[in-house]
Amino acid sequence: MFKREVQGSPKQKLKSSIQRSIRQSILTTYPLLAPHIDEVLPKKHSLEQIKLPERVSLYVIDGNPLVYQQDNGVLLPHLRLVHRFPHCFPTVRIDRGAIRFVLSGATLMAPGLTSKGGRLPIPVDRDAAAGGSAAGGKENKGTEGEEGEEEGVKVPNEGPDEDGHWSRELEKGEPVVVMAEGKEEAAAVGVLKMGTKEIKEIGKGPVMEETHYLGDGLWRLNVE
Which fold has domain 12-220? Predict the structure, then answer.
């Protein structure tokens, strides 16, 4: 989608109602961002939209790209947002051999995740391990601003273990961040075409297409 240079439309300030809707969608899709939401989307700052080819909208604030969306699909984080809050997004890891393919925009295939250098989630009940309740998570009540109070968001008790394995299986259609063996920062973002449990069982086939990756047109786009 972003293999070539991307040309965007002039930035357009969004209505307050649309800004609130996007804020809530971000919290719903990425609840681990809830403790940081006022840093991601500062109150009294305007969220702006840049229209891109292929019916993609990029949302930016104060010159910082946050999330993008094709048509009415899921909101996907820009890699610059992922690099700011790396533990707030579900992750998988590719092996060294898959890096050059992913960073050229190729389809991510299952063997790049199931090999020795790859990494897939290892489910664990973190609440039980911590002696917490079965319901899990804690609720972020939000803060009341000039335009009302946002809905409470339950922050799930999930995340990476000491080795970086995510603590639950990820489902088909779920957005995921792709880490790379031997690298500290995320390499790509996309939507899973196959759940991680199925990836482990089958071990072959396409896992992710149309990714946003380091160095692509979206990464290089000037949003100032």
Answer: Sulfate adenylyltransferase (3.10.400)
